[in-house]
Amino acid sequence: MRPVHERPVVIAFNPIAGAGRAARLAAELADALRGFGIAAELAPSQVAGDVTRIAAEHEERCRCFAVVGGDGTAREAAEGLVQLATPLAILPSGTANVLAGELGLGPDPWRLAQLIAADSVRLFDVFESRAAGEPLRRGMLFAAAGFDAEVVRRFSRWRAERLAAGAAPSQLGKAAYARPLVEALAAWRPAPLEIRLDGAPLSGGPFAWAIVTNTRHFGGLFTLGPSIDPTDGRLDLVALPASGLGHLLLTMATAFAGRLDLCPGVATRAVADEVTIASPAGIPVQLDGDPHGATPLTVRRLARRLPVVAPALAAVPAIAPAAPVPTIPQPG
């Protein structure tokens, strides 16, 4: 047996998530860490948002804070790691797992333990987001206003109703987004957005959908841009035009094919420090895949970055070649 490191890895997880799958993965990760001579402590969450509390309580006494869950669980952990100094490790078991995919991480406890033992980390950009009706929150993936936030709002409401009716969380995966997606498409009425980058208005437009993003991938299905890098010390903005349903479908098709650059009217900008998004009437906002109030929205990049356990950049799988763009008639 290897000597055990004094500072443990604390593993947070929801004990009932995935019909107990998260608990099993957490136990497997703890066993794998002990095999590397690293102490591990299991920290099951009790209520929604509990991971933030657990992270804050253990931040200064653990070697690494690990979460078993999806993008929302990782965001909660980043919220609790106030000093942005303790490494965050992610064992994906959520719905989309955008963050884990961006870093080349899979649901492999032994591989994650190996990376923790090797102190293999990358500095991940983090931002703060404030929307109407919501407190200031941290984000790791994206904050968006427009169509996708409306889908998230409808899905979250429908999911809560289904859970209250006795549905198992495992029954509400990616496929469950189909109904709110269709409903949001049917109700689509683009509202113009006023977008400012570091106080200066964004040229072009009018725009009706804006995504401040830290990652190339979005929603588990779409690619916003191959050059977007969550470790480059900046955020990126993707703004989509205020057009009808036909153009919205074209936007989604090109993003699904990884060729959003071919969609007319799309503006992409690097964001230095701050972006604000406003509209005459408040429209839905989402943060890392969860509802986040309504516009106006302010997103600000933090100067300090969060160390995240991940393979070295050269070991991260490359993005697959883009698929052919589906042919969808453009609106006249």
What would you note in describing this structure?
The protein has 332 residues and is an alpha+beta fold. The protein has two domains: 115 residues, 3-Layer(aba) Sandwich (Rossmann fold); 177 residues, Tumour Suppressor Smad4 (Sandwich), CATH 2.60.200.40. Helices cover 26% and strands 30% of the residues. Helix 3 links the parallel strand 3 and strand 4. The radius of gyration is 20 Å and the shape is globular.
Characteristic key phrases:
single chain; 332 residues; alpha+beta; Rossmann fold; Tumour Suppressor Smad4; 2 domains; eleven-stranded antiparallel sheet; four-stranded parallel sheet; 8 helices; 30% strand
Main sheet specs: 11 strands, antiparallel
Distance between the termini: 70 Å
What is the CATH-assigned architecture of the largest domain? Sandwich
So what's the CATH class of the largest domain? Mainly Beta
Can you write the helix and strand succession as a string? EHEHEHEHHEEEEHHEEEEEEHEEEEE
Continuous helix count: 8
* Fraction of helical residues: 25-40%
**What is the alpha-carbon Rg in Å?**
20 Å
Total beta strand runs: 19
Principal-axis shape? globular
User: Low-confidence segments, ≥5 residues, pLDDT <50?
Assistant: 314-332
What is the residue-averaged pLDDT? 85
Class based on secondary structure composition and strand pairing: alpha+beta
CATH topology of the largest domain: Tumour Suppressor Smad4
User: How many structurally independent domains?
Assistant: 2
Percent strand = 25-35%
